[in-house]
């Protein structure tokens, strides 16, 4: 994938040939990417959607098993579909544009209450929270 870094961390129990094979199943060939690690061994892993719904469960299970085997305490994987609970990039860009317009174009002789409600309507603070 051209959108992944040249080097990235993967569970040691996944063989190179498995990674190559699985990469074709992910949208944009974006393999699971280890993003963050906690001292207790927990990790945050980002993963693109799997294109083939029929293969999704099998590939997902193999990757989650590899991640579990790599955890020092063998803790189970907790998965969360962030597409359903986070704004997409277009929504974030639109909120940023509204914030910018509010800060640059809005006259400050308006009441503070109106400006604060306009700020809230941009959704910028909600997104960065």
TrEMBL record:
Family label: Belongs to the protein-tyrosine phosphatase family. Non-receptor class myotubularin subfamily.
Binding sites annotated in the UniProt record for substrate: 88-89
InterPro entries the UniProt entry points to: Myotubularin (IPR030564), Myotubularin-like_Pase_dom (IPR010569), Prot-tyrosine_phosphatase-like (IPR029021)
Residue intervals of the Myotubularin phosphatase domain: 1-129
**Which GO biological-process labels does this protein carry?**
phosphatidylinositol dephosphorylation
Q: What is the protein named? A: MTMRA protein
Give the record's GO CC terms.
cytoplasm; membrane
Which source organism does the UniProt entry give? Answer: Regulus satrapa
Q: Where is the signal peptide?
A: none
